[in-house]
Amino acid sequence: MLWSDPPDEPPEELRHAQKRLRRLGLVMAVASMLTMVLLAGR
């Protein structure tokens, strides 16, 4: 890698999008677990 190469960091908006997707995935996982628990308790 040369000193003139640009840094390998993703752009700001991409980092925000990745953070949102990670948060959405976490929310979906918790929601599906809650749904399974509620359905299993019937």
UniProtKB/TrEMBL annotation:
Entry's transmembrane regions: 24-41
- Pfam families attached to this UniProt entry: MmpB
Starting at the broadest rank, the lineage of the source organism is: Bacteria, Bacillati, Actinomycetota, Actinomycetes, Kitasatosporales
- Domain of life of the organism encoding this protein: Bacteria
Which keywords label this protein? Answer: Membrane, Transmembrane, Transmembrane helix
**Protein name in UniProt:** Uncharacterized protein
